[in-house]
Fold this protein.
Amino acid sequence: MRVEEFDYELPEELIAQTPLKDREQSRLLVVDPVAQTMVHTRFSQIGQHLRPGDVLVLNNSRVLPARLYAEKEDTGAKVELLLSRPVAEYEWWALARPAKRLHVGNRLIFHQGREGATCTGVRAEVLEVAEGGLRRLRFEVEGPMSGFLERVGEVPLPPYIHTPLANRERYQTVYASQPGSVAAPTAGLHFTHRLLDEIAKQGVEIQYVTLHVGIGTFRPVKAERVEEHTMHSEVYEVPETVAAAVNRARAEGRRVIAVGTTAMRTLESAGASGVVQAGPGETDIFIYPGYRFCIVDALITNFHLPKSTLIMLVAAMMGTEFTKRVYAEAVEQRYRFFSFGDAMFITRKAEWKGEGAR
């Protein structure tokens, strides 16, 4: 399967640069790959497409202010860091740019923003160098690391967003509670507390898992063939109550709906045996056409980048050709794309297992 099969033409002006004032007022394209239908509506009407007894699973990971600006203590050379994942409270793996400037033993001084003042009493030392620009750093910080990041760090917006964010809470879901991601689980950005309450009153069961989005989300697929691509590993957590709720729904024939590809990947990883296992885990699951879905029946998701692993996941649910038709329709109808863009609700009958699945 060639990566080029998942390319499409997207006018640059359709890439959403800022969030809508009202989260719920994003547009929603409801698609059924079995009936081959598309319905245009608003996200505020998502409840009309849900049923009593559905289990709606959301990812409650919170985006860290993980972008830091620093300089080398000895030379003053500027360095930009994107924290990837913690090893311990004050020890982190980070993506460095330019990476060639940082070697084992180098010490860093930090700034409050790209051109901001120097942060007094804060240092970091490079402990280890890895491939791909990754560096393991030990921070010297007074107080908790989370406090330092909130004071000094920036929320790392995707590279296709060029407009500064006026309120960084708009790159968080309203239910984000577990810090650890470097990018938002953006399908959840459309929900408000009011909308979640309304959905719950319909008899929809709302559950939360955690998957911390890693730096791999910013890296393009460079392989020519889909099967040659390797996913970066990400950590997740499935609470006991969530595993029980999902397994009970499946046993009773009720739908399990993932909000976002991160919730989808968590459920499919934890439920690879057909039964969702509770607890922490780590996943590098790569879902593309031919994958047989074990747990999830429907998906709420945004519109994804051409040739990305996320559009491949969507194609696994809808079929490659129908995915092309859906994206062409979204472009023609001037939907807003990517992180701050509009959404899709992909429904399917229980017997539909995805293109090429056995």
Observations:
- The two ends are 17 Å apart (CA to CA).
- The chain has a mean pLDDT of 94.
